[in-house]
Amino acid sequence: MKLSVNQIQEYNNENIQTHQKEFDFLAEKLIKKGIDVAGIIEKLENFNVAIPSWALGAGGTRFGRFSYGGEPATLEDKIDDIGILNILTKSAGAISLHIPWDIPNDYNAIKEKASDHNIIFDSVNSNTFQDQLHSKHSYKFGSLCNIHKEIREQAIQHNFEVINIGEKLGSKSLTVWLSDGSNFPGQNNFQTVLNNTAESLKKIYRHMPNSWKLYIEYKPYEPNFYSTVIQDWGTSFMLAQECGERAYTLVDLGHHLPNTNIEQIVATLMNKGKLGGFHFNDSKYGDDDLTVGSVKPYALFLIFNELVYGMNTNKNNPVPAWMIDASHNIKDPLEDLLQSLEAILIAYAQALLIDQKQLEKNQYKNDVAICQEILQDAFRTDVRPLIRQARLNTNGALNPLEAFKIFKIRDYLIKERGLKSKASGL
Ligand code: LRH
Ligand code: MN
Ligand code: MN
């Protein structure tokens, strides 16, 4: 199933008049306020988010998994699915592979397929939180932190292999998330496991090509429920500092205890030039991996406010590697990912509307009410016409989810792949 630009243009032509009216109305209002509308649209056009290879199969929990038909059975199929997302939105031009869930068989074929869809290979993810089919040692009691050297070595070697795979595909970074920790008090010596982790990460860091970055992801709990070695941004930051300049912290929105001020963490990391990677999702309770913006859109907007401020101010911080790390449980994954992409762009556009000069002025005056008004005025603006305009300019679909439904893409995928196809990976 491959969508053509012509199909999308025809769909756009049918909706262009309504869009034009909405866009003109909003643009006039914003320009009167002194906002650089063309500049914002350009930024939206250039925003790209990586799609993880594991998000395209049916989601689920350990209690059940409900298939939806037409699932991508191979990595090639997954790249095709991302191709659909990308041609509709023009903002999903990258894939992030999880190894060994998605090991390429034929590198040339995979690379060709990806370039056919204008997709690049983003960060590669290692996996030492599950035992692999033929490995000698088990990670039941930890991987990079393990008390036994030979188990740490096996986990380090796995990361070397992942770097190797990434190099063949043109990736430029490695993401390490460890589930290492303990389930019961007394199980681990906190200092020993921390030291072991630092030593292992340093070995991995030193093995990376000079042009590569290392992203260290943190998470407070799960699957370990008493302690996790890299439990918070502070631990990740400290380990990244120990590794070196090209090691960074990765923030996954779901990896915080309830009510954590994530926007402040973002600001702190960017201030120190150490925010390297970003996993988008939303949550109500824990690492729920819900659709981006589905539960706490205002929090997402406040986070984007700090990201935009940081990207303008902290030139020592690289532009973070954006990725959606969400699951969908009962939704069609492609529809869910389209919704996530939309939510990300909405929050980004709203944050770009914030008048930072006015905000600063009012912070000096200690006019708390006006400071709040400035943020909320941006948040309450319906920025969707700006996003549609950005998509129009790049030949994407005005409304990708609507187009996905009108084109009956899922029906085509079911016809092509069958009702019972099952995704590789998770
Ligand atoms: C861990 C995590 C991490 C993994 C992915 C599958 O909860 O967020 O990024 O690689 O989920
Ligand atoms: Mn994650
Ligand atoms: Mn997670």
- The strand count comes to 13
Residue share in β-strands: 5-15%
User: Biggest β-sheet, characterized?
Assistant: 6 strands, parallel
Oligomerization status of the protein chains: single chain
Task: Provide keyphrases for this structure.
single chain, 426 residues, alpha/beta, TIM Barrel, 6-stranded parallel sheet, 3-stranded parallel sheet, 15 helices, globular, binds 6-deoxy-beta-L-fructofuranose, binds manganese (II) ion
Give the arrangement of secondary structure elements:
Elements: H1 5-32, H2 37-46, E1 50-52, E2 60-61, E3 64-65, H3 75-89, E4 94-96, H4 107-116, E5 120-121, E6 124-125, H5 149-169, E7 173-177, E8 181-182, H6 190-207, E9 213-217, E10 227-228, H7 233-243, E11 247-252, H8 262-271, E12 275-280, H9 297-313, E13 321-324, H10 333-353, H11 356-364, H12 368-379, H13 384-393, H14 400-406, H15 409-417
Parallel strand pairs: 1-4, 4-5, 6-7, 7-9, 9-11, 11-12, 12-13
Antiparallel strand pairs: 2-3, 8-10
Helix pairs in contact: 1-13, 2-13, 3-4, 3-10, 5-6, 8-9, 9-10, 11-12
The structure holds 6-deoxy-beta-L-fructofuranose and manganese (II) ion (2 copies).
